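Consider the tokenized backbone below.
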């Protein structure tokens, strides 16, 4: 009797253990298929997202790129996935009408490190405009340049009075453009071309020589103002600009010097320097206020802007008695 009861008890225990094992197996299978289905759904969405982004990118290039994030808590049995990054964090995607603002450029240095200094100037090699364009690819139409890596401190207009010096102009542009670029300035080159064929160099008519040669050069007088000079816009307007009464060669630079210094001096034996002694009296009415010209043409070339003007004829010279 005791053995029979013990056998039934063991049988019941075994059946209970078997039922527990079967229940555990069923629970494990349910969890396994649940996780597998979630993973399969993740991969299918990921592939669809990649294909969608590729299709959008191959068209206009403006398609959305989708990302997938697992937002489930560590202890949860199911995971939540979002199919678009903009649904998760809207700030990740910029608005349609907004573009990122460019970073402001730093100011250009006052003394750029690329300055060369004194140059060797030579005219032995042939110079062409095609060569100038290859040497200065960053110069835009009209002879304009602006440094791309910094904000220029100065904006400069290089104004050149010009007449019948095409070969000289090529060499001048060849040397000047690199110098100005190294200075990190915003500049433009303007050639003021005097049209017309009248000859104003009276020296050619009165002098019968074969060659002009200077073996020893000295300045003709103190305070010589020839060469290269620079005036600010305020200074230029204050002196009423350049004089217009000097036809031919020489005198206008010294007149400008007198306007700037407000002094009188008269170099001797040099025509037309007899006008210089009256600079203080004439500067208010001879200059920008009396300038008359006819604009013939404005044309932009790759290395400069050409401005052709007609300024008329020189007044007749007084007859010497």
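A designed sequence for it:
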């Amino acid at each position: 009797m005791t053995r029979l009861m013990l056998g039934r008890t063991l049988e019941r225990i075994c059946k209970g253990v078997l039922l527990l094992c079967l229940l555990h197996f069923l629970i494990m299978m349910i969890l396994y298929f649940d996780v597998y289905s979630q993973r399969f759904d993740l991969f299918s969405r990921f592939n669809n997202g990649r294909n969608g982004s590729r299709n959008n990118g191959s068209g206009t290039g403006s398609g959305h790129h989708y990302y997938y994030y697992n937002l489930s808590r560590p202890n949860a049995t199911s995971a939540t996935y979002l199919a678009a990054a903009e649904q998760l964090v809207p700030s990740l995607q910029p608005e349609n009408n907004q573009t990122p603002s460019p970073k402001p450029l730093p100011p250009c240095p006052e003394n750029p490190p690329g300055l060369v200094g004194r140059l060797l100037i030579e005219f032995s090699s042939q110079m062409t405009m095609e060569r100038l364009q290859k040497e200065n690819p960053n110069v835009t139409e009209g002879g304009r340049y602006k440094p791309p890596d910094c904000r220029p401190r100065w904006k400069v207009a290089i104004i050149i009075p010009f007449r019948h010096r095409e070969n000289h102009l090529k060499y001048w542009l060849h040397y000047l453009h690199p110098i100005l670029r190294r200075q990190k300035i915003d500049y433009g080159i303007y050639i003021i071309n005097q049209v017309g064929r009248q000859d104003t160099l009276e020296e050619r008519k009165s002098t019968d020589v074969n060659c002009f040669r200077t073996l020893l050069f000295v300045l003709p007088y103190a305070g010589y103002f020839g060469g290269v000079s620079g005036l600010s816009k305020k200074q230029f307007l204050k002196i009423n600009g350049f004089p217009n009464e000097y036809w031919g060669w020489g005198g206008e630079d010294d007149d400008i010097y007198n306007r700037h210094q407000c002094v009188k001096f008269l170099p001797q034996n040099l025509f037309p320097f007899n006008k210089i002694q009256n600079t203080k009296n004439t500067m208010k009415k001879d200059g920008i206020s009396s300038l008359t010209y006819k604009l013939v043409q404005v044309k932009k070339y790759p290395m400069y802007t050409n401005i052709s003007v007609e300024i008329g004829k020189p007044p007749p010279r007084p007859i010497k008695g």
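Residues 2-58 form the longest helix (57 residues).
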